[in-house]
Amino acid sequence: MTIDERRLHRPVAFDRPDHYPFKDVETKWQRRWEESGLFRVREEPGRAKYYCLEMFPYPSGRIHMGHVRNYAIGDVVTRYKRMRGFNVLHPMGWDAFGLPAENAAIEHGVHPAVWTYENIATMKAQMKTLGISYDWDREVATCDPEYYRWEQLIFIGMFERGLAYRKSATVNWCPSCQTVLANEQVEDGRCWRCDSEVVPKEVEGWYFKITDYAEELLAWCDRLTGWPERVLTMQRNWIGRSEGAEFELPVVLADGRRPPGPAVRVFTTRPDTVFGMTFAVLAPEHPLVDRLIADPSERDRVATFRAEVARQTEIERLATDRPKRGLRLSARAVNPFSGEEIPLFLADYVLMGYGTGAIMAVPGEDQRDWDFAEAHGLRIVPTTSRPTEWTGEAYPGEGVKINSGFLDGLSVPEAKRRAIDWLVERRSGEAKVNYRLRDWGISRQRYWGAPIPIVYCPSCGAVPERPENLPVILPPDVQITGKGGSPLADVPGFVNAACPRCGEPGRRETDTMDTFVESSWYFFRYCSARYSGGLVDPAAAAYWMPVDQYIGGIEHAILHLLYARFYTKVLRDLGLVRVDEPFLNLLTQGMVVKDGAKMSKSKGNVVDPDELIATYGADTARLFSLFAAPPEKDLDWSDQGVEGAFRFLNRVWRFAEANREALAAAPEGPTDDLSDLGRAFRRTVHETIQRVTDDIEDRFHFNTAISAIHELINALHVFAGESQDRVPQGERRALLREAVEVALLLLGPFAPHLTEELWERLGHDESLFGHAWPTPDGQALRRESLQVVVQVDGRVRSRLLVRPGTADEALRREALADGKVRPWLSTREVERVVVVPGRLVNIVTRRAGGEA
Ligand SMILES: [Zn+2]
Ligand SMILES: [Zn+2]
User: Fold this and answer.
1) For residue 186, how far is its CA from the centre of ligand 1 (angstroms)?
2) Which ligand is nearest to the CA of 194?
3) How many angstroms separate the CA atoms of 233 and 227, rounded?
4) What is the pLDDT of residue 804?
5) Measured between alpha carbons, how far is 834 from 812 in angstroms, rounded to an integer?
6) ∠ at Cα 619 (613, 625), nearest 5°?
7) Could you read off the pLDDT of 541-579 as tens digits, one per residue?
8) What is the whole-number distance in angstroms between the Cα of residue 457 and the centre of ligand 2?
9) Would you give the DSSP letter of residue 14?
10) How many CA atoms does the CB half-sphere of 531 hold within 13 Å?
11) Residue 335: CB partners within 8 Å, gap ≥ 6?
12) Distance (Å, rounded) from C-alpha 507 to C-alpha 489?
């Protein structure tokens, strides 16, 4: 049911005439903050900085509840840190290149730039209605030539150092989108965007040499203590470091001769298992295969097999749950350890891009090899003794070596060392570290991306554009059809370019960069967004970087974060920045789900933030999304939850307004000489400060922080009633005023408009967010008296204020003598009194003169 339907069917809280005027309040303060430049910041050397960053959005058209949640989290952190005295940078921008803009162009005939900038305008207006504390002066859109010119300059720097290079490789290709897809963009063999079947294709393109940084990227995973462990684990697995040995695998042709040319090399993480090598496998694409073929019929078989494998994507080939196809060659391999000749295969499960493209197969210890051996009737020789309880097939664990010649009797680690020593002594192999990580393919055969600043010259080859000619601007006048590669190839004014080195006519690169490149450095640009001397003003970068708190979805746990880390290290090595890592702390927020599924248009369970804000106000939208779940957990949408948040804010409003006169007339702060009731209440106020501060500071547990504020508001109501005739008026007003101010300050980061308005109505001239975050008063926290509940037959009848450590007997006496308790005992006899020290006295009665 949509919110509108609910309104039709039954009256709810917001239809009551007494709800607070959130529309006027929110508009007023959004304008006021903007006019006063409250959140515009600049470097203040010597003052502590805090850089809070949410992942910038793709301008798809409208913001959704996931965005609202993301930005509300960042806004709480920003406002809180600001109140704690930090100089807080909180910028926003647009990850503006990408395929949807091009698809919109194809479907609706609107230019990608027009579509993108219209969406930016819409989403920016939506964001402003949320009242997020951005410094909009630093806004960037990555499709702006003044943004991507720096990316092109960095590309040239990387090209000159061999960190950007061109190669041909088999890629996942979406025939419908006509573009390369990363493995993560392929879901069940289909394109994540258009659902077409993905095919492998040999494509030449540009690559960033992220593998040069594999070791450092991995090592830093241990030092990013402010990151969630599961993200670090995903990054470590993605980098995939493995230690092992690489060695030469001799090959014998069908006629007994050795093939000419370089030897086949294999990498293994288990050199201790070499005596179990009963066959060897080459990737079908292995360049040495052609030299191993004996005759034309074998050549045909190999060609047929290669064609079959070429129809499979890499993901299919690596899947563990499918049969592994193989072709046995006439040539044979020789196990260098045993001297034994063994069968040699081509198989689809070995890929050229991983390791050396050749493996020694040890079916006793490797399940994929086991499956292949079973399917092809090959020998299986276990080389590690199995535990007696082992019932599986291949055994990958520890144990004593068996069937292993000179390694027999050794442990697995010792056998690994000895096997490597043996290879080194014979100069046929060595210890080697291997990474799963491969270089980052950044070429996209698309229009709406940053042009790659390269010109192909018939005499000089690939030549980078001269820095003074940057930016290489994406030409606006193109025909976008979605078919047949980059539309830039059909723009003569773009393609035809003079060689930057020799001046001869050349051809400009028509691939554009992967949009992950733009998102790998935008956080540097924010530090000095209008700087024209380079990608970032070094002084600004030195002051603001690294980002203190980065906030975004878990779906970016691998690629975006890894690329941003890599790019930061490249910028460092180019001498442009000084930081090793971009993000000190990372928070990965959960999804927003409704009716058990992630909100999505296709599921029809989307809640539109605009509608929510129009009905309840931005403060309610924010408070709900922060209260319903801790930030890292999924947030389950609930209409009742939204109404609850709205009712709570109304309650705060009504209390402050109803007591406005008493609060305005309050003396300057409470005195030391308080009544017992006043002292107990003041302790509650200061305990709340402590709780809320701890919840925000250490754990970002905004939901429990908000709960504590709820309790404080409840305590306010109770105290306001109970203190009427029990507390001197001056003390009462001072305590109420202090408590209301504390409540507004604590609630401020969550519901900034309402609190700012009430703060002003209390008579403050300065913004609430210019005020310091409250700190608990140690004096107030001291427990000089405890509140003990008195029940009669299980019902609360009174509360006693007693000193800590009051004896049970004294509590019992005071409870029985209490003025509010005695009427309940007038017709009853006390049977027994139960005392829970420091908390409760329960008086159990029975009818006078009879049974209970
Ligand atoms: Zn597609
Ligand atoms: Zn040239």
Assistant:
1) 9
2) 1
3) 10
4) 76
5) 8
6) 85
7) 999 999 999 999 988 888 899 999 999 999 999 999 999
8) 5
9) G
10) 16
11) 274, 275, 277, 341, 342, 360
12) 9
